[in-house]
Amino acid sequence: MIDARLRPVLAKTLDRVAAAVDRPWVTPGRLTAAGLTLGLAASAAAAAGWWWPALVAWLVSRLADGLDGPLARRRGTASPLGGFLDIVADFTVYGAFVAGVAVGVDGPATPFLVLLVTYYVNGATLLAYSSIAERVGRERGDERSLHFLGGLAEGAETIAVHALFCLLPGFAGHLAWGWAVVVAITAGQRVAHAVRTLSEPAGRPTR
């Protein structure tokens, strides 16, 4: 919901940080791998009930994830493979973290299972739309590898809610129920957008 507003604000900061870490041994691929590794470590820490280490690892993993693209563009090495690996790492970390929280909290796993289903459906709407929109020649609108459709649940909100799982583990189940509703609404928004735009003849501009 707020990604479109945050991206211009954060872009310059991320570019400066990318310049600061621009060393021969720091590559976009290694930043992607670091984000994945730290995200999985955060998931394991959550499963063990180590909420503060989980929070720190989660936030640092998302910082690494935010830097691989700016560094690749700074070096002129951005590639389709890099974008593919970045998306795979993101989806892996998001799902693993929810599973870790489900194990770590003292309560039923049902809300987290429902949340994972909504993640699955929402991810399917995003990836299916991106693939088909690319094939029919839709413009992406920014420098990212996929056609990202806006909605209530985007990257910034996901990072914040997962952080709240660590800060308020006693309420994690309630948070998961509420977040699952928001993610489901987002999936519905994306389906509605796809129905509206992909039903048009290819080559016509989207509304």
From TrEMBL:
<feature type="transmembrane region" description="Helical">
    <location>
        <begin position="33"/>
        <end position="60"/>
    </location>
</feature>
<dbReference type="InterPro" id="IPR043130">
    <property type="entry name" value="CDP-OH_PTrfase_TM_dom"/>
</dbReference>
<dbReference type="GO" id="GO:0016780">
    <property type="term" value="F:phosphotransferase activity, for other substituted phosphate groups"/>
</dbReference>
<dbReference type="GO" id="GO:0008654">
    <property type="term" value="P:phospholipid biosynthetic process"/>
</dbReference>
<feature type="transmembrane region" description="Helical">
    <location>
        <begin position="81"/>
        <end position="103"/>
    </location>
</feature>
<protein>
    <submittedName>
        <fullName>CDP-alcohol phosphatidyltransferase</fullName>
    </submittedName>
</protein>
<keyword id="KW-1133">Transmembrane helix</keyword>
<dbReference type="InterPro" id="IPR000462">
    <property type="entry name" value="CDP-OH_P_trans"/>
</dbReference>
<dbReference type="InterPro" id="IPR048254">
    <property type="entry name" value="CDP_ALCOHOL_P_TRANSF_CS"/>
</dbReference>
<dbReference type="GO" id="GO:0016020">
    <property type="term" value="C:membrane"/>
</dbReference>
<keyword id="KW-0808">Transferase</keyword>
<keyword id="KW-0472">Membrane</keyword>
<dbReference type="Pfam" id="PF01066">
    <property type="entry name" value="CDP-OH_P_transf"/>
</dbReference>
<comment type="similarity">
    <text>Belongs to the CDP-alcohol phosphatidyltransferase class-I family.</text>
</comment>
<keyword id="KW-0812">Transmembrane</keyword>
<feature type="transmembrane region" description="Helical">
    <location>
        <begin position="109"/>
        <end position="130"/>
    </location>
</feature>
